Amino acid sequence: MKEKILEAINNSKVINTHSHHRNDDFFIDFNLDKLLENTYISWSKVDFDKSEQSRQNYLDKVRFKSYFVWLHKALKEIYGIKDELSAQNWDYYSDIINSYHKDKNWHKEILNNNCKYEKIILDTYWEPGSNNGDPGLFCPTFRINPLFFGYSKDAFDHNDNNVYKLYGREFNDIDEYVFFIRELVKEKINNGCVAVKNALAYDRPLDFKAGSRDDAQKVFKNRDNITENEIRLFQDYIFGEICSLAAEINIPLQCHTGMGRLEKTNALNLMQTIQSNPETKFVLFHGSFPWTDDIAGLLHAYPNVYCDICWLPLLSPTAAQYSLAQMIEIGTSDKIFWGCDTWTSEESYAAKIALTNVLADVLSQKIEKNYLSLNDAEIIIENILYQNPVKMYDFFKANKESK
Ligand SMILES: [Zn+2]
Q1: Residue 144's closest CA among 241, 262, 281, 277?
Q2: Rounded to whole angstroms, what are the CA distances from 178 to 131, 165, 191, 313, 317?
Q3: What is the pLDDT of residues 120-137, one digit of tens each?
Q4: What percent of the chain is predicted at pLDDT more than 90?
Q5: Mean pLDDT over each residue of the chain, to the nearest integer
Q6: From the CA of 299, how far away is ligand 1's center (Å)?
Q7: N or C: less crowded end of the chain, CB within 10 Å?
Q8: Separation of CA 178 and ligand 1 centre (Å)
Q9: What are the backbone dihedrals phi and psi of residue 335, each rounded to the nearest 5 degrees, phi first?
Q10: How far is the CA of 18 from the centre of ligand 1 (A)?
Q11: pLDDT by residue (tens digit) across 201-244?
């Protein structure tokens, strides 16, 4: 049974709804070291250099990590390598990767041939709203984090972005600022962005309250002498305005939930915002890991909640399986999306392998228990990988506008 499920997954068209894929130039002189430094494995801060001892130490430390396990499988498959990566054959792996990337299109070939992506929603936080110069494959989501830091000319988001530097504008009061935000978002959507992306969980807790214009105005007028609490009030107001705008122009609002700063980043913190904005489509990211139950609760309660399990299978296949099974059981498999959430093609394929395994395990167990038929499972696969994103995001418009 599992074989049939795997076949259905591997034959399905795929829309990858979240990626930070780097541009062509990034893959010049690419090798194993550069790859590893730009994967989630690097977040564990285990250093390595060219010595065999440090490479051995690195492998000893990271080899059971889910990020490494999937990446290792992806490398062996993409490059047709049989031997396990070791400190001794490290350069052999690296040289093969490097030689394939001499063809500057190689990173795209992996995305096309191994991953089989038809479209990728791209979040270029280093240049919000970019499509990496390839509108055929990439549709941007517009990262809105910098807009929450417009209360001061010296305030930066966690990616070191600053509104005044990015857009070179001045504002006399909060109304002018909000007007600018509205026009900017609309312009980005008209230029091909298919969603807006809030990754504020890396900057602050997600317990946004209903903001007031007057509080925000006070902060704006007193820019250089404000407290943490006043900054939150300002951001609460800005988020309320963005939620209203997303409903008005019917654009999905993607929100990072879980992880990030960890303090109050679980998805339930968004409940008040979700409740107050019933016309806004909230796409909650990462299954709110490690608080995955929050997603099931919110999906069950609110028709305007969706879930993108991007990152989750790569991060923890156990959590992803549990979460996916729950979401199917509460009848919301038509509201699930998946994205790789990676910077490189090799790790993107690793994420796809992780998803494939998770999906196949969950669905084959459900078939064994007579909960689903094979046909049901095939419908769920096609929904998650293709139909759900096609219904949610306006790829056709994005294509047309960017031509
Ligand atoms: Zn991401």
Answers
A1: 241
A2: 25, 17, 20, 37, 41
A3: 999 999 988 899 999 999
A4: 87
A5: 95
A6: 21
A7: C
A8: 26
A9: -120, 15
A10: 6
A11: 898 899 999 999 999 999 988 887 899 999 999 999 999 999 99
Assign domain 125-306+363-402 to its CATH architecture: Alpha-Beta Barrel (3.20)
Which residue spans of the chain are classified as CATH 3.20.20.140? 125-306+363-402
Measure 364 CA to ligand 1 centroid, in angstroms: 29
Q: What is the pTM of this model?
A: 0.95
Give the residue carrying structure tokens 């930070």: 20
17: which 2 tokens? 């709804």
The length of the chain is: 403
**C-alpha 359 to ligand 1 mean position (Å):** 20
Give the pLDDT of residue 261: 87
β-sheet bridge partners, residue 306 = 283
